[in-house]
Specification:
By secondary structure, the chain is of the alpha/beta class. The chain has a single domain, classed as 3-Layer(aba) Sandwich (Rossmann fold), CATH 3.40.50.880. Helix content is 28%, strand content 23%. The chain has seven helices and 13 strands.
Length: 288
């Protein structure tokens, strides 16, 4: 290996290590009254630009901290009971999140009974028991079934334009993936925010043309618990769609809503200005 290649490899390693440490370290903002967020991610699956759960953990830890969350923790595994004790809202972006041990289910149910919020993105709504998972998220799909379009146009029809979460959302079209064959919670059911007509891909089969909710909220109360909230966005197959400004602002509002905070708290947050150093202050003091 040449010296130039060794130097390049060293730079790449440092960048990777720094990103890994950032993803695992909790974010702290200058807003002690902000919400506490836990991002539940997982190892990357699929091809380039798809299902990039570790990148989401890094990107959104930084974004939510900049947007005024008082603490952003996260991991590539489900939150522990200790994690949930210091969390207002769990943001889930990991494949097949419904695969939980009995202990993990008990911890998550205890958190929801305390009124803790959940936000589920893309195939985090998938698992082996969609009836159970929908009892926490409002809707879920079963792992192993052909219940997806694969890459296709997803044309949103916003059906609740008065909902403040959808303030910046229009009937836009994304290149992503939509789901069907859903199991829905009943009594209470979901509040549909936007739907999509299933595109006629090969995997859609006879489900082409069906109108299926893709964005919704869910308010419910587990037995013996406090009212809790969940917000779901079913896209996110294509990672770049997280950078769409309409999607990003809708997700920020959905996270705040699930945490039972003012819906615009993250969108409108402005970091406090740092006080200017006193005249004549030493340079070292000015940097502190």
């Amino acid at each position: 290996m040449t010296d130039r290649l060794r130097a390049a490899a060293a730079v790449i390693f440092v960048i990777f290590l720094g990103g890994l440490l950032f993803a695992q370290a909790p974010g702290r903002s200058a807003n002690p009254k902000g919400m506490r967020v836990f991002i539940w991610a997982g190892p990357k699956t699929h091809g380039p630009g798809q299902h990039d759960y570790p990148l989401f953990l890094a990107d959104w830890s930084k974004l939510l901290t900049e947007k005024g969350a008082s603490a952003v923790d996260g991991a590539l595994h489900p939150p522990t009971s200790a994690d949930l004790e210091r969390t207002d809202v769990v943001v889930i972006y990991v494949g097949d999140a419904g695969y939980l041990t009995d202990a993990q289910k008990a911890g998550l149910e205890a958190y929801v009974r305390r009124g803790g919020g959940l936000v589920a993105l893309h195939d985090s709504i998938c698992g082996p028991d969609p009836a159970y998972w929908s009892s926490l998220l409002g809707g879920a799909k079963k792992h192993g079934e052909v219940n997806f379009t694969l890459e296709a146009p997803v044309r949103y029809a916003v059906v609740d334009k008065a909902n403040p979460i959808m303030k910046d959302m229009s009937d836009l079209t994304l290149w992503d993936e939509a789901f069907f064959l859903m199991t829905w919670a009943r009594n209470p059911g979901i509040q549909v925010l936007a739907t999509n007509q299933i595109y006629p891909t090969r995997s859609a089969g006879d489900h082409k043309g069906e109108v299926v909710p893709q964005i919704w909220t869910y308010e419910h109360t587990l037995p013996g618990g406090q009212p809790a909230r969940a917000f779901v966005w079913m896209q996110g197959h294509t990672y770049d769609n997280f950078n769409n400004w309409q999607i990003q602002r809708t997700l920020l509002r959905g996270i705040a809503w699930a945490a039972k905070r003012p819906v615009d708290e993250l969108v409108d947050y402005v970091a406090p200005a740092r006080p200017a150093p006193a005249k004549g202050a030493p340079a070292a003091a000015a940097k502190q």
